[in-house]
What we know:
This protein is α+β, with helices and mostly antiparallel strands. Helix content is 51%, strand content 14%. The chain has 2 domains: 33-181, no CATH class; 182-224, no CATH class.
Amino acid sequence: MRAVFTSNQFKKEMNNIIDYSIGFLDGVQRGKTEFLKMLGLETVELMKEFIDSNARVNPEMLHHVYEWYQTGSPSARLYDISYTTSNLGLSFRSSFSQSISVKNGSRIPFYNKARIMEEGIPVTIRPKVAQVLAFTDNGEEVFTRGPVQVLNPGGNEVEGGFEKVFDMFFNRYFSQAFLRVSGVAKYLENPEVYRKNMKAGKSMGRSKGISTGYRWIANAGMGA
Length: 224
């Protein structure tokens, strides 16, 4: 038995395979931005749903980030979540908006209630028109001429509640469940498309690697 091969052809194919592999990595880097944008959009929506679900289960902790009497309702959110992409990956941040609803017994909205209750910021209440403040404390009517300071408007259970759920999403749900169940983690762990396009890469080299790598990472979506 005799094996015959052309050294020049073999060398060319080996160089093309190397170029294909390098091109694949370059393509992944180029397509990473598209992947992160997709992942960012999906994560923001899932996170909002996660917070809403937790609010409905535990309204005492999260009622402050919704309009009055609408805890857990997507249309009554007083928070928003945004994301940015960079070479380091994805970054998420939250912000609070002004409340426009009025609590029973009040005349004007508690404009910064989400931020104030979340951060446990003391509030001082002073009479504007009347000379006497009237309010209920533990079921009793209280009247006073001086200002009243509420040290923790939302209570201990509310303070930091939104931050706790925010952290819970990324530390537990996102890393331990979402990436696995969605198929993203499995997809990224097994770049099958690299092997399938090896034959074409042997003849086309770097250009095939770039296009393959770009498509692979850009298509790493839900249920991939």
